[in-house]
Specification:
60 residues, alpha+beta, Molybdopterin biosynthesis moea protein, domain 2, 3 strands, elongated
Length: 60
C-alpha cells in the first residue's frame, strides 16, 4: 500500500519547513494529492522527488 503523508509529516521527512513545502506546492514543484482541503504526499512520489533532486558527486 502506498502511504500518504500530510504537510507536517512530509516537511519532517524532507527536513524542510512547512512554509517551504507550501511554496513548492503552490509553484507545483512537487507532486501532491488534493482530497477536499487536505494536501497529501505519496511516499513513492517523495522517493522519486529525492532521486530526481539528488546531485551526483564528481569522482576524480
Amino acid at each position: 500500500m502506498n502511504n500518504l503523508l500530510n504537510i507536517q509529516e512530509t516537511a519532517r521527512y524532507l527536513h524542510i519547513s512547512t512554509s517551504t513545502l507550501y511554496r513548492w506546492v503552490h509553484r507545483k514543484e512537487i507532486k501532491y494529492i488534493k482530497i477536499g482541503s487536505r494536501v497529501l504526499f505519496s511516499q513513492e512520489d517523495l522517493a522519486e522527488f529525492i532521486r530526481i533532486n539528488t546531485v551526483a558527486q564528481d569522482v576524480a
